[in-house]
Amino acid sequence: MDLPTPNTSHVPYERVYEPAEDSFLLLDTFSLDTERAFLRERFSENVPLVVEIGTGSGVVLGFVNAHAQTLFGTRRILTAGVDMNAYACRATVETARRAERDNPSTHGLYLGSSMGDLTTSIRDHEIDVLIFNPPYVPTSEMPLQPDEFKPEPAPSQQPSFDDDSYLLSLSYAGGKDGMETTDRLIDSLSAILSPQGCAYILFCAQNRPEQVKQRIRGFGPAWRAETVGSSGKTAGREKLQVVRIWRESDSA
Amino acid sequence: MKILSLNFLTCAVKACKTSPNSYPLHPKDAELVQDELGLKPEMIISVLPRIDWEALKSTCSELGFPALPEAAPTKEELENDEKILKDLHHLLLETSISEGKLVCGNCGHEYAIKEGIANFLLPGHLV
Ligand SMILES: C[S@@+](CC[C@H](N)C(=O)[O-])C[C@H]1O[C@@H](n2cnc3c(N)ncnc32)[C@H](O)[C@@H]1O
């Protein structure tokens, strides 16, 4: 399935993550027949709320929203984005709007984007499809906010060089094993996902995805974590992979 | 941000999660914008079971919209009542908040909305 990628030509890449191999792996994964079948079956009866954490340019959320009919088999999906970076939120609003305009007969309903830390502003047990391409690169420290940093700059304000480097470091710096942020999200999964909820999270090889999957399966007998998309094999190991996490409700 | 978002949002302060007063957040000084969208009855009908009606009623009256029915309309009612369908379409899908604040009824924290984007990042002492 080869669906058009949203236009992101308006995005300021000096301070917002530019779509890269990881972003495109997510698009490819959602386009797979297996994932489309999974999502269709899972949400055939109720309208799913799709939330992307760390939308960056909005390329992934804009894509999923624009192609709702093709991916979910229905246009009746709600989508929303969260990012710590105000510029990423603004970029996502524009990307989603353009992609809706470019796909007038297939798009879902984009509710908007907000600034926040992971899912802390979203009610528990509401998210049906969670998407996260996290800051996954191992770094010795997590990004430190500059003293004069303005989280909500006016559109006319020109951010300093320090602000821009902070915002860009948010997009990749993952601390120990590149997992400090992702681990926090994984710990909250059972509280934030709806009963039929699932999550798509991207990992790189240094994140030790096999161990992470084992940890999630340890949450309980219904929990599943499987690699559903991967790219860039080196020496038999995937460089990047997308893991789908869900609960098998019928298995009990 | 569309009004419907308020049905899924809550205070980001951890201690507020368990308080019923933290949901829904209360809009304050809200400036609204309208998008003209084609009426999609199926969207409203199928999204309704997903909505917390009590929360929607309070959001709706706080924003100064005409009162919603006491109980959520059923599918049949929606199919036969163009007026309520249109009202809900207008409120849920066509109306967005562009500027203002969202206030937590438990801790009183105010989250600013600018250019339609709410900021739920907490100052250090609240994290
Ligand atoms: C690798 S980029 C992914 C961007 C985009 N989704 C893509 O695939 O191209 C990670 C994004 O997560 C955001 N981010 C990092 N930590 C976050 C947090 N704790 N809460 C919300 N967003 C976060 C960054 O600002 C950045 O936009």
TrEMBL record, chain A:
<keyword id="KW-0949">S-adenosyl-L-methionine</keyword>
<dbReference type="GO" id="GO:0003676">
    <property type="term" value="F:nucleic acid binding"/>
</dbReference>
<comment type="similarity">
    <text>Belongs to the eukaryotic/archaeal PrmC-related family.</text>
</comment>
<dbReference type="InterPro" id="IPR002052">
    <property type="entry name" value="DNA_methylase_N6_adenine_CS"/>
</dbReference>
<keyword id="KW-0489">Methyltransferase</keyword>
<dbReference type="InterPro" id="IPR052190">
    <property type="entry name" value="Euk-Arch_PrmC-MTase"/>
</dbReference>
<feature type="region of interest" description="Disordered">
    <location>
        <begin position="141"/>
        <end position="161"/>
    </location>
</feature>
<keyword id="KW-0808">Transferase</keyword>
<dbReference type="GO" id="GO:0008276">
    <property type="term" value="F:protein methyltransferase activity"/>
</dbReference>
<dbReference type="GO" id="GO:0008757">
    <property type="term" value="F:S-adenosylmethionine-dependent methyltransferase activity"/>
</dbReference>
<dbReference type="GO" id="GO:0032259">
    <property type="term" value="P:methylation"/>
</dbReference>
<dbReference type="GO" id="GO:0035657">
    <property type="term" value="C:eRF1 methyltransferase complex"/>
</dbReference>
<protein>
    <submittedName>
        <fullName>Methyltransferase domain-containing protein</fullName>
    </submittedName>
</protein>
<dbReference type="InterPro" id="IPR029063">
    <property type="entry name" value="SAM-dependent_MTases_sf"/>
</dbReference>
TrEMBL record, chain B:
<comment type="similarity">
    <text>Belongs to the TRM112 family.</text>
</comment>
<dbReference type="GO" id="GO:0005634">
    <property type="term" value="C:nucleus"/>
</dbReference>
<keyword id="KW-0539">Nucleus</keyword>
<dbReference type="GO" id="GO:0046982">
    <property type="term" value="F:protein heterodimerization activity"/>
</dbReference>
<dbReference type="GO" id="GO:0070476">
    <property type="term" value="P:rRNA (guanine-N7)-methylation"/>
</dbReference>
<protein>
    <recommendedName>
        <fullName>Multifunctional methyltransferase subunit trm112</fullName>
    </recommendedName>
</protein>
<dbReference type="Pfam" id="PF03966">
    <property type="entry name" value="Trm112p"/>
</dbReference>
<dbReference type="InterPro" id="IPR039127">
    <property type="entry name" value="Trm112"/>
</dbReference>
<dbReference type="GO" id="GO:0030488">
    <property type="term" value="P:tRNA methylation"/>
</dbReference>
<dbReference type="InterPro" id="IPR005651">
    <property type="entry name" value="Trm112-like"/>
</dbReference>
<dbReference type="GO" id="GO:0005737">
    <property type="term" value="C:cytoplasm"/>
</dbReference>
<keyword id="KW-0963">Cytoplasm</keyword>
